[in-house]
Amino acid sequence: MVTRTSRFNVNGKPVQIDVEPRTNLADALRHHLKLTGTHVGCEHGVCGACTVIVDGAAVRSCLMLAAQAEGSNIITIEGLPRGQGDTLGPLAASFKKHHALQCGFCTPGILTTAHALLTEEPDADADRIRDVLSGNLCRCTGYISIIDAVLDARSAYQKQKIA
Amino acid sequence: MTVVPNTLIGQEIERTEDLRFLTGTGTFVDDYEPAGTLHAAILRSSVAHGRIVGLNKNAALKIRGVHAVLDASDIGFDIPTIPLRLAPLNGFEKYLQPVIAHGKVRYVGEPVAVVLADSRALAEDALEVLDLTIQSLEAVPDWIAAERDTSVLFEQNRTNVAIRYKTHIGDVDAQFRAADYTRKEKFRSQRHTALPMETRGVVAEWDGVSGRLKVSGATKVNFFNRRALAKMLALPESAIDLLELDVGGGFGVRGEFYPEDFLIPFAARKVERPVKWIEDRREHLLAINHSREIDCELEIACRRDGTMLALRGKIYGDMGAYIRTNGGVVPAKAAQFLHGPYRLPAIEVEVAAYMTSKTPVGTYRAPGRVEANFFRERLIEMAARDLGIEPATFRRNNLITESELPYSIGQLVPYETETQYDNGDYVAGFERCLAEFGYEEKKVLAGKRVKGRYHGIAVVPFVESGGAGPRENARMTLGSDGVVTVGMGSSALGQGLETVFAQIAGDALSLPFDRFRILHGSTTLVEEGFGTYHSRAVVMGGSAILLAAKKLQQAIREAAGIEFGCDADAVSLVDGRALTPNRPSLSFGEIAAKAGGTIVVEATFSNTKRTYSYGAHAAHVVVDDRTGHVEVLDYVAVEDVGRAINPAIVHGQALGALVQGLGGVFLDHLIYDENAQLLNASLADYLVPTASDFPNLRGVTLELRPSPSNPLGAKGAGEGGIVAVAATIANAIANALSSLGIEPRELPLTPPALWRLVQEARQR
Fold it and tell me: pTM value?
């Protein structure tokens, strides 16, 4: 088995892993770095559960090779902003408040996608949020509560942008 | 029955589960990996029907890191079959699925061999070079081909018709003779599946020294599955633990006993290493239970004034290649639920279950109900129009009234006893839906073409059963820290049971919500559990918690009495403390400490009466006749669930079910060709609703009539939201396109399908 060394930052920490060239980023995060918060739902880039943030952009980690992540900054669900005293961050807290998750399997990808969106576009309206999240499948909620949760979390991102 | 005080119950408490899911710290089965784990990949048949000629393993075994390739010959002469769990109809036992193909393959996706390797990638490399030779036989792609019996899946049975039976209430022929009006139609519901976001997975660990097996990733009906597995492996049940981790959705399909639930533990015992198998999405679509493929002939008899006199029909169930654990439920319930919430003097249904060379069938959320509701309500819509009666009025006039409840629907299912709708106000539920929807105001748009699109509205009532018996168990353990650990025989598959059960337990013991730790599903928690299906977890499990709480209170009183030197009856329990006159009070935790560290009680709730939730759905759609595209402008789903323990969770169930239902109308479709090859085994081709498809949905939960059959008054809330969706949307489309005389009879109603109906109508 030929391996190759990849170096990148995950959730603010530099990491170095030796993986086969064919290893995708999702498997590298989950199996090699033990960051199992990122979930794999289809392995062909449709369901969005494995979405992580690579240099600010929401990316399907099942469609990216670990080798392609060389030198990049990656944020996974484990690295999303937390509140004071390690409480839930504003987006996650809003999901809890709005019952925007049930089984929780798609949730990591939805949070990372929504976080990337609101970081860039804190004023995104419901249509825009629906449009962006249409790349993340959820089979439990019917999406309504998810959209409500993201809308309600905007104020935290708006304040941040002004600051 | 006594009603528990309403302090936690009825509140929209935020879920306990959410914290771990929102921080990426949940433990789903693929997040668990013991040291030394081997990874399994499964060689599956690529041929729908054929004879296995040979499997050459040599090239695969030469790959470094590949440890074993196991096929039927490694399992032995006597290949176990997967037992029936539900719907044990006479004859099904001849069509059970062997845990691995031997001699023949009967569907694309059937397991033929298991590869064990150091990584999943290596195991898949081995799949590529496994040389499997199958001599193809004629495929049996649908029930019509099955009925011909020219190609028979089980030669020894000499037919593809697994069962055929007739069931009835009343004198159908007499009612039809007396009718002013009859109409007969054919309908079809398409094969699709539930598609939970987490695929299945099994991690099996065999301890050869103690002879114990640990299987992680189990859910739904773990005690049944343990019993089945123990028998297959010739182990005592007590030597096997089935452990439930976090579960990424079930909806009926996950947690039934599948071939892999034997193969992976078998492999782990064989190689004496932990073995992990995680289903990939392609194999999920080929391997997990399919559902809903039912053809129906249905005839209605009415008086001129619209009074329904009788229904008679035929249900043709495509069962796939084997009768799996609960496959028979699907056609049997499709027949039973043709009755619906209506006063119906007579009904007669013939049910036939056909073996086809496709993935086997099992239950998916409201199995049979969705199909039956679609068939019946489409026909009622046609009848109402023929008779010139406004369709909502037609339905309201035929609804069973409250004074007629309980209402027997006889014994329409041969393997069940007579059942009756328990209680409710079906008319009130229906009226509430009309009012919330604004039916009268929206009616003015019905059938009109506005800005190039046709508007249509429809309202459809439903009734749905829940609360399957026979029993459920709860074990409460009070610790010296004052925390009550509740072990449940019910499984959690993402519905929020940890929250709901803590609410029930909190009220029952007058303790705060955060004093409970809810454990669920695993076979280590209670003596016996019956699991989660048929909207039973809260009805049965929740009621068991109430009984356990009573026992725990008594046990605390007794222990406190010993400390206080008084009778247990002289001890009162207030706010987590035991009191008796003239003695300093003791906290529950202190009492547990003095009683040896813990106080443990276990209770069983027994009940064989079903609950029946009910309600109605209404939809407003616009149809573009040029493209066949349908937009849902408004949708209201109303359901009386008896008692909503956590209204936010119930609401989530309603909307989630509704959107799954809309997927079943417009998108979800497992498409097979004439060779019984599945054509769309990826999420790029198998479509489900996304966030932008159905933004305008409303759910209304009613608590009009608590169930009389359980102390909570709950009726189950997981499935009602999906029952009426197909019928409501199809009727709204028919209403929109009434000027063209279009009557949708087949699901799904995709844009091409509707476009074709429009073209055909225009050519008539």
Answer: 0.97
